[in-house]
Amino acid sequence: MTIKIDKTMPEAGDAPLFVQYGGQTQPQPAYLELDEFGNVSLDYSSEIGGAVPMDVWHGRTLRWSVSPYLSRDAALDLLEDASLVALLERVHAGHSVDWDGSNMVGHLTEDAREAKQKVQEILDEISRDGAAQVWDAYDWVFAFGKNSLRGVWPEDEPLDDAEERLEEIADLDGVVLDGSVRDALLSHLEGEDPDELEGEHLAAYRKYVLGEE
Fold this sequence. Notes:
The chain is of the alpha/beta class. It contains nine helices and eight strands. The longest helix is centred in the middle third of the chain and has 20 residues, at 110-129.
């Protein structure tokens, strides 16, 4: 039996497994998955609170934990790793699904269980060495500017230009931003005293905070 590897990533950008929902303090768990038909993919859980689908619960689909911070290059290299592919083949060869009287349940041979453990060991190593730098956009912008609006956005620079420049800096530094640079700048701008604003800062405040045309 031969496995089939899907290299499609769930998200764009350099951290394709990173998703953090509003109100949550941690990103969603990410995983490598092998279903009973031999399909292999990387994805993240859309559930909050650790819930899993019934096929995973009953062992018909197997999952291994992987870092949600894994970079795109590391993720693609992982799916092309010959030693990992060989282990997944062993797991799939020793994975069967049978009726237990109540549900269709997955079972592993001793060799498949051993290979399954070795898969996790590889993923743990990749998770340590292949992580992307993921920052909340606001935290990165104002750590870079030492919490000063003028430190990251000169008063004579249009908002669009400031956004583009900061995104280019993040990209050059290999930083993946969670959120929008533009929203970060406007959020900080909203807390400024309008009487102390000048130039493009004042223009942006009037347009985006006050809603003036």
